[in-house]
Design brief:
- By secondary structure, this protein is α+β, with helices and mostly antiparallel strands.
- It has one domain: Nucleoside Triphosphate Pyrophosphohydrolase (Alpha-Beta Complex), CATH 3.90.79.
- The chain is 28% helix and 33% strand.
- Strands 1, 2, 3, 4, 5, 6 and 7 form a seven-stranded mixed sheet that branches.
- α1 packs antiparallel against α2.
- The longest helix has 16 residues.
- The protein is globular, with a radius of gyration of 16 Å.
- 28% of the residues are buried.
């Protein structure tokens, strides 16, 4: 199938050339998303974004409705113009905190058995606008999460959202 080879080539270029601190090409990501979803070439494939909010020496963790703790994030949607746009939308929807310094870190590929779907997730970090951790205002969306907290990287709450757990097991650390 000619169309899918083009998508795989584009995807390979995006994944193969990204490194920490690089800024992914938003136009390519948007084009890839539109091609995959509109042509239904890979219906079991999804794009997502996760933002690790870092303040001082802690990370913000949100307890999802499922009871699992995780980073702020969600699915890349058709109206998102870029990875950054998706990250800003998701953080706005889930925690309504003012953030700055969004920085792309890595792509993660994970299969979620319950959904029978493979996701490629862009992992970013961001900092609150507030200077002190106690001044950060978090307002949770009750449809998304039940509680939140600041945790040391070596003392994260359990259970973790499986994709976040896998990312950590693969050696990801937002402080490096």
């Amino acid at each position: 199938m000619r169309g899918s080879r083009g998508i795989f080539f584009t995807f390979s270029i995006l994944i193969g050339t990204q490194s920490a601190g690089a800024n992914p090409c938003s136009e390519s990501i948007s084009n890839l998303y539109r091609a995959v979803t509109s042509e239904r070439i890979l219906p079991e494939f999804g794009l997502a974004v996760a933002t690790v909010v870092v303040a001082e020496d802690k990370v913000l963790m949100v307890k999802r409705i499922s009871g699992e703790w995780g980073f702020v994030g969600g699915n890349y949607e058709p109206l998102d113009q870029s990875i950054l746009g998706c990250a800003e939308r998701e953080t706005g929807e889930e925690i309504r905190a003012k953030l700055k310094n969004f920085e792309f870190k890595i792509f993660q590929k994970i299969y979620i058995k319950e959904r029978d779907k493979t996701y490629v997730t862009a992992i970013l970090t961001a900092n609150p606008v507030a200077e002190r951790i106690e001044d950060v205002q978090i307002t949770l969306n009750p449809r998304e999460a039940g509680s939140w907290g600041w945790f040391s990287w070596d003392k994260l709450p359990k259970p973790l959202f499986p994709p976040n757990q896998q990312l950590i097991e693969q050696g990801f650390n937002p402080f490096h």
